[in-house]
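Usage

Read records sequentially. Each one opens with the input sequence:
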Amino acid sequence: MHTRLLDRLCCSYCQGSLQLKPFVLEAPAAAVIPQPDDLSAAQVQPYPDTIVQTGVLLCQTCQVWYPIYAYVPVMLLFKTSFHQRFAQEYQAQLQDLSEYHLPDRTPEPGELAIQETFTDQWLTVQDSELSFNYTQSDLEALNREVWLNWLPAAETPVQMVLNVGCGLGREAIALQTVTQAEIFAVDLNFGVFQGAARFRSHGGIHFVIASLFHLPFSGGAFDLVYSQGVIHHTLCTKAALDAIAALVRTRGYLFIWVYGRDDAQIKDPTVKGYLTYKFEAVVRPVVSRLPAFLRDLVINALTLVFHPILKSYGRNRQQWQLRNTNHALRDWLTPRYAHKHSYNEVLEWFEALEFQIINVQSPLAYRKLFERPLWGVGVTGQKR
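and closes with the structure output:
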């Protein structure tokens, strides 16, 4: 965590200011800004602040401490097994904070299951060159040409971006390349630790573990709030949208992509596509509720069956490995929630929140890039 992030963070519960108590500090290295189409190419740009590897953030109002671990502030309002391990490992450093306590509130319905399955999902591909079917250059082109193609004509500048549901961080890097903005990358899953450690030299990207329903930022703080493939995995997609929309400043922008109700027909209108859709409808509710060890057994067995099929389908076949198939199957079959929505439904939500629709995703641009149809519902609105 860069110490300058403290100027932006606030308590997830009371929105009050935080104090930093660092345990391990690092001198800042020169930050590496990724260039389009090549993660290895870099432009050096200094960031003069200090990097916190481990420590705690203190809210004096709530008398709560939030851990910082592996460069990531963990701003959850509920305790997990991670918190218990952290408290034990850093018991000596926490001795003089006896008046403070761990967060002890109740998670939102389903959040613990969401956190568990998505942590497992992302840890399977922590060293992969791919994010789903996409390389880094694919992600940049996808955002530049399909989802954020309105950016060059944006009425107001985009300088601060909240990436809700960042996975391991490759999406955040693509967003920084496309927007040239400062990125605040948030996710519920603990795989963020690996992503933040791997990409900590990329200046201007800040990783945070938090619930999207209780984000540790002030309302109206961001020029763009971006959430791709995330909020449909909560108990209520509309409630999740309401929560993240509150972080958009006046005349700022909100982009979301969610599953579409007609996705099965768009992806594959054949009998095979229909059967695939029905397979998910039957299997996912069962697999997502299995104990972790049984869920792993099922997914690992299905990985061996589906790997040749998925490898032949993807455009980046040479990079696609067994773990990518495992990751894809976890994303498909292990989430507790996977709601599907229509365009009219999503557009109405935006209008009710007083966002003017300024863009919908471009299926033609997607087909030109990837030679296959685009699915899902992708919408950008500007806050009135």
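Summary fields computed downstream for this record:
- The radius of gyration is 20 Å.
- The first strand starts at residue 19 and ends at 26.
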